[in-house]
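A student in our group prepared the protein record below, which I am reviewing. Here is the record exactly as it was handed to me.
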Amino acid sequence: MLLIMENKKLGVVIIIIALVVGSLLFYYNSKLNEQAEEIGCFSNPNCATIEDGLSISHIAIGIFSFILALGFYLLFFNRTEKKIMEKLENAKEEEKFDFALKMLNSFEARVLKKIKEHEGITQSTLRIKTDMSKAKLSYVLQDLEKRKIIKRIKKGKTFSIYLNL
């Protein structure tokens, strides 16, 4: 749900930026057109700089249109995350685990599988079973814990690790 809110905020920010930039581009384009008409540039070969400016402004307007469309998409039409979250909330525990594995890199998936096999495994034992260095395992576990996929509980000089799905 947090991801959906972030997309909406991002969409609003992009739309605001696009509108400001678009306003400036349209103003610039209209000024170039006024100058071109005043000195009769469209038939005068001495006005190459104004014609080049108009060409660039047309490209910029195309980019502005794309940015504006992206903002509206993020704000109103991007429902993919919502559907994924709904499916995940309604899924059984085994489906949640399989879904989580698909979203992880190979190191994270290997660690998660071992934690599932041995719920409450210590970090030192997990290091041996996954054949990872201490530093790499620590980094992977911190990342998984940050994303609330696992939880670590202090046990002496090491941690016991549990799934949090």
Residues 2-38 form the longest helix (37 residues).
